[in-house]
Write a structure and sequence with these properties.
By secondary structure, this protein is α+β, with helices and mostly antiparallel strands. The chain has helices spanning 5-22, 27-34, 38-51, 79-87, 109-121, 192-195, 210-219, 236-243, 246-251, 265-273; strands at residues 56-58, 65-67, 125-129, 138-149, 154-160, 165-170, 174-179, 197-204, 227-232, 260-262. A 5-stranded antiparallel sheet has the order 6-5-4-3-7, with helices on one face. β5 (154-160) and β6 form a beta hairpin. α1 (5-22) crosses α3 (38-51) and α2 packs across α3.
């Protein structure tokens, strides 16, 4: 990559993303976003056209670049990221995005910092943990190797010396963190449930109409007839919970009202029981 290549690549991606999501791009938008000169902006747009000739065209009437008929994106797209970043910048306005968040789901910055430092320094962390199965909080020494946002809360995937196992511990239940150098670091490479994946086969409930089935599957990124999702074994129950089929898969409790059906639930259930 030539000098300044990474910066140029970011600008080329932004050029395409802007036209992809908003339908248009002005040279001054590129100048303002990256604080570059008009000459540099013209050079970047020319570089993009060299990569994908005919992808965009310049309207002579209003000097705006738009998608051409043969437009095909070359960069991976993430709508949520684009809207979130655009809504907090000085770029041309896009539709705002609101993330629903409740105060009790926000982990303390000090806890997050302590976990990050524990991981980066490979030093076990002692925390005061209030489990909902115990009346009183207890000291637990952990070796966290991932932070996981499951859609409802933030937890740490971690080695837990109390249980002698890799488990999930909720960050909002932790307090009073301090390094513990009396115990060895247990690396996440030994976490089999995290490193191994299982396949979950899903299809729409047969009672749904074709239109309903199409929408239900589209919401989870699968074709109308269903398909397979591969997930870390440690995260499988969270996925099943979000899909509303955890009880059906875990306990065999059928739910005729469920919109989604797991067609290999016996296999998935046995795999989860062997954890």
């Amino acid at each position: 990559m030539k000098r300044g290549g990474e910066a140029i690549l970011r600008r080329l991606r932004w050029i395409e993303d802007t036209i992809h999501w908003t339908g248009q791009l002005r040279r001054r938008d590129l100048c303002a976003h990256f604080n570059i000169s008009p000459q540099q902006a013209s050079s970047d747009i020319g570089e993009y056209l060299n990569l994908v000739p005919g992808n965009i065209r310049l309207s002579s009437e209003d000097k705006v670049y738009r998608q051409d008929e043969g437009y095909r994106p070359i960069f991976e797209k993430d709508a949520a990221r684009w809207v979130q970043e655009s809504s907090t910048s000085l770029d041309p306005p896009t539709i705002p995005i609101e993330r629903i968040s409740t105060p009790w789901q926000r982990a303390d910055d000090g806890i997050i910092a302590a976990i990050i430092q524990s991981y980066s320094q490979k030093t076990p962390l002692s925390v005061l943990y209030q489990s909902l199965t115990s009346r009183d909080a207890r000291r637990r020494t952990i070796c966290p190797h991932r932070l996981v946002e499951d859609g409802n809360r933030l937890h740490a995937r971690t080695w837990d010396y109390e249980r002698n196992a890799f488990i999930d511990l909720v960050l909002t239940r932790m307090s009073d963190p301090e390094p513990d150098q009396t115990l060895p670091w247990i690396d996440g490479a030994a976490d089999r449930d995290w490193n191994e994946r299982i396949d979950i086969d899903l299809e729409p409930n047969p009672s749904l109409s074709p239109g309903q089935a199409d929408v239900v599957m589209r919401e989870i990124g699968l074709p109308p007839k269903g398909g397979r999702i591969s997930v870390r074994r440690a995260e499988a129950l969270y996925l099943l919970e979000h899909l509303g089929i955890r009880s059906a898969v875990q306990d065999g409790a059928e739910n005729p009202a469920a919109r989604i059906v797991c067609t290999n639930q016996v296999e998935v259930r046995e795999t989860l029981r062997s954890r």
